[in-house]
Please model this.
Amino acid sequence: PFDVLVVGGGPAGASAAIYAARKGIRTGVVAERFGGQILDTAAIENFISVKHTEGPKLAASLEEHVKEYNVDVMNLQRAKRLEKKDLVEIELENGAVLKSKTVILATGARWRNIGVPGEAEFRNKGVAYCPHCDGPLFEGKDVAVVGGGNSGIEAAIDLAGITNHVTVLEFGSELRADSVLQDRLYSLPNVTVVKNAQTTEITGTDKVNGISYIDRETGEEKHVELSGVFVQIGLVPNTDWLGDSVERNRAGEIMVDKRGATNVPGVFAAGDCSDSAFKQIIISMGAGATASLSAFDYIVRSQVE
Ligand code: FAD
Model:
């Protein structure tokens, strides 16, 4: 069995694996896609001490750093079940069952989809999830942001500076973003905010040419012509596969204490899949290190053989 088995190969998982391996204990990483969300990220300018880098470049450095150590990396493997027995068992989609004294869950999160026609079809053909990555592709064009929470309004403010015009579509009767962000948004000349808007379709031919929505107050169907749709309706933690095996909050985030411990002895969690206050690379890496040191401490203190 492993001493530490990390599930997830993003910033949190890579950090956890390196910290564990440096203790000279048997360490494994199972990752559906080594690198995680940063593979989809363009510029990164808040990874402290590195003024500027790009996601794929940082992902390559993570992998290189992990491979410096004796870590068993199982890439392109998805975990589907966790069970705590004497050891912790992780069953993979391919049927294999891995056993470990401790497990660190670092499965991250993904952007929530609207689930309307056109969204999947036009992904990367006008449908985008990351204003930092794809904003410049829509320079001088008209775009929509779906979602009026903090991420949606931040995206709209960001895009207003690059594009010709931004339409914000919010399902509810009010924006949910902090008032300071709303004030900033309403001060911009090229933004229209539509509330009570239920997005029904993203239209296009070979790429996006518009968005349709129903005005929930009047029931009227509307269509706006534009070239891009940024979906900003939240991050979903990749934790469904855990079921009730580990305690999660209403948002599905794994509940951890300040040592990264979950409610299951020997099972720890770190990064965007946990109930951490902020979801960032540097924060995930710190949490991965914390969880790993806690796992080591657990091994030292327990009698598991
Ligand atoms: P992730 O990066 O999500 O990694 C999760 C890992 O778990 C992946 O390897 C995944 O394949 C794997 N996994 C998931 N489910 C399973 C399973 N069942 N079995 C096995 N493996 C599984 N943060 C910043 O600090 N600065 C930025 O500029 C920045 N820009 C961003 C831009 C974009 C477009 C996005 C999407 C995010 C950005 N972030 C940024 C946030 C940052 O990427 C995340 O906070 C960080 O990647 C979280 O790391 P993580 O290791 O917790 O999770």
